[in-house]
């Protein structure tokens, strides 16, 4: 009996996992934007992307159809907008922590698409196998990112990898690509078929299958057997059906090997493969040109992705109305393309360019002023909108005596929202029951107050809650024995939450502690 051994990628600091504080998102109306035509549920979040992903988890878990990320490649070069030289172990921990939240955000039929180069792509794949399960790996797409070899190298890199991973490979279904203009141009109707133009493909398959090794006699009298190492594309009864329906082409003289006719009229699209040439999805120089046209700057981001690349991914992974997430938004290409294609989107970016680059870019898209990228291909004319949000500050801070206290930035409603997130409740203030600020079910509620509650106040709350329901009360303190009220659970704040999260940390892109070298 064989015994399977589970192989895992190990690195320094792998066992260290942050205890993330689920922050509240605060709207910034002056940076949000709504066009003249409608509004969509789109969101741009400025802040650390790991904290932002955690902040999104309670509302968006299981709802995101496609996640695209273009993370720092860990090349050792210092990018202006990113620290892209993180040591290998630190980089793996940084990415693992984010993937674990991303997996929770993905819908059951959702997929993750990640662009990387050879520095970390292979390590990332093994690490992602642990998070998602090796059986959920879909493909490694090769994107031809350059138009010519690097002159300084004898073997220059010409591609990036686009790793595709499913939440559940048994449920994910990728779409077909539209029929290409080249295919449409090449389609002919040499036999004047009533179904219109068609293209043809070989009627053989790789391998040897006994029931697909028959002889074929063409209309012109030629006799063929499958070529060496191949068999016919289907069993003989199916071949007869194709022949009877005039779906085979034997050349003008009727003596050529059979080819299968595919009619443009019936074509639903074409399957993608894992080689994406830059002629189809763009390249680095095209992406930089798009950035310059948008911002007017000669030098913006070092490694932007062309809109055509994102259009290909969004086409394969989503349908109109689906939700697309990019937690390394960079210059905002993902949101711009998703918006033009009628998808909803969420983007996260920590840097100031969330305001200086992404906001102006998306405003142009919404106002119909972005004529570049995939605008013409998608027939985009403007509309929609987005909310700009920032992460609330950490709930817990220290006063001048070094004591851990609730931050002064939190008023009553914001405090209730924060504690709902931390305790796993949905913030849902009742219009009729003043004591209900959060719900975890139809019978379990939460109430927050910074007051010290008396025994009589607890008794009143217990009576209001009634039988068959429960109330979690988070307060500064209380008097009397709360154990006499079985439908109440009373806890002090901030003591109740101090051990649940790492409070006060604003950036999870920094190196982990340990002996990594």
CATH evolutionary superfamily of the largest domain: Vaccinia Virus protein VP39
Question: Given the C-alpha coordinates, what overall shape results?
Answer: elongated
CATH structural architecture of the largest domain: 3-Layer(aba) Sandwich
Q: What gap, in angstroms, lies between the N and C termini?
A: 42 Å
How helix-rich are the residues, as a percent range?
A: 25-40%
Oligomeric category: single chain
Average pLDDT value?
A: 90
Number of domains: 3
Low-confidence stretches: 510-517
Q: Helix count?
A: 13
Give a count of the beta strands, DSSP E runs of length 2 or more.
Answer: 27
| Main sheet properties | 11 strands, mixed
Under CATH at level 1, the class of the largest domain stands as Alpha Beta
Put the structure in a nutshell.
With 517 residues, the protein is an alpha/beta fold. The protein has helices at 49-60, 88-105, 121-132, 181-186, 236-244, 278-281, 284-295, 307-317, 333-340, 353-366, 375-378, 412-423, 455-465, and strands spanning 25-27, 33-34, 43-46, 64-69, 106-116, 137-144, 159-166, 198-202, 204-206, 216-217, 223-224, 230-232, 248-249, 259-263, 275-276, 323-326, 344-349, 385-391, 396-398, 404-406, 426-427, 438-439, 444-448, 452-453, 470-475, 477-478, 488-492. It is built from 13 helices and 27 strands.
């Amino acid at each position: 009996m064989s015994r399977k051994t589970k192989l895992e990628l190990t690195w320094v600091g792998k066992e260290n996992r942050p205890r993330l504080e689920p922050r509240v998102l605060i709207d910034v109306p002056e940076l949000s934007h709504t066009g003249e035509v409608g509004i969509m549920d789109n969101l741009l979040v400025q802040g650390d992307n790991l904290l932002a992903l955690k902040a999104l988890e309670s509302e968006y878990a299981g709802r995101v159809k496609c996640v695209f990320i273009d993370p720092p490649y860990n090349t050792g070069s210092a990018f202006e907008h990113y620290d892209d030289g993180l040591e290998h172990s630190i980089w793996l921990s940084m990415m693992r922590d984010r993937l674990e939240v991303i997996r929770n955000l993905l819908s059951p039929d959702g997929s993750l698409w990640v662009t990387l180069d050879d520095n970390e792509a292979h390590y990332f794949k093994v690490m992602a196998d642990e998070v998602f399960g090796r059986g959920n790996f879909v493909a490694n797409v090769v994107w031809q990112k350059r138009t010519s070899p690097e002159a300084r190298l004898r073997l220059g890199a010409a591609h990036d990898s686009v790793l595709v991973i499913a939440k559940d490979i048994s449920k994910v279904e990728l779409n077909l690509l539209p029929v290409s203009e080249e295919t449409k141009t090449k389609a002919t109707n040499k036999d004047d078929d009533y179904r219109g133009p068609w293209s043809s493909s070989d009627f053989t398959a790789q391998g040897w299958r006994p029931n697909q090794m028959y002889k074929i006699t063409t209309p012109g009298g030629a006799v063929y057997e499958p070529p060496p190492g191949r068999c016919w594309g289907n069993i003989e009864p199916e071949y007869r059906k194709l022949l009877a329906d005039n779906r085979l082409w034997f050349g003008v003289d009727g003596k050529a090997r059979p080819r299968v006719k595919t009619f443009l009229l019936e074509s639903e699209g074409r399957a993608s493969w894992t080689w994406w040439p830059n002629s189809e999805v763009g390249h680095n120089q095209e992406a930089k040109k798009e950035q310059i046209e948008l911002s007017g700057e000669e030098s913006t981001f070092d490694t932007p992705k062309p809109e055509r690349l994102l259009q290909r991914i969004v086409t394969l992974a989503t349908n109109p109305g689906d939700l697309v997430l990019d937690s390394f938004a960079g210059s905002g290409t993902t949101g711009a393309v998703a918006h033009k294609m009628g998808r909803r989107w969420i983007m996260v970016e920590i840097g100031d360019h969330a305001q200086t680059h992404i906001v102006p870019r998306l405003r142009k898209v919404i106002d119909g002023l972005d004529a570049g990228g995939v605008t013409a291909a998608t027939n985009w004319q403007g509309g929609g909108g987005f909310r700009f949000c920032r992460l609330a500050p950490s709930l817990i801070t220290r006063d001048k005596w070094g004591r851990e206290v609730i931050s002064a930035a939190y008023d009553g409603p914001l405090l209730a929202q924060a504690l709902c997130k931390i305790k796993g409740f949905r913030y849902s203030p009742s219009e009729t029951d003043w004591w209900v600020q959060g719900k975890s079910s139809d019978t379990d509620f939460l109430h927050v107050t910074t007051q010290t509650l008396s025994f009589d106040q607890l008794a009143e709350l217990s009576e209001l809650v009634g039988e068959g329901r429960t109330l979690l009360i988070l307060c500064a303190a209380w008097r009397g024995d709360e154990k006499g009220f079985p439908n109440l659970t009373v806890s002090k704040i901030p003591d109740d939450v101090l051990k649940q999260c790492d409070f006060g940390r604003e950036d999870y892109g920094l190196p982990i502690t340990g002996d990594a070298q």
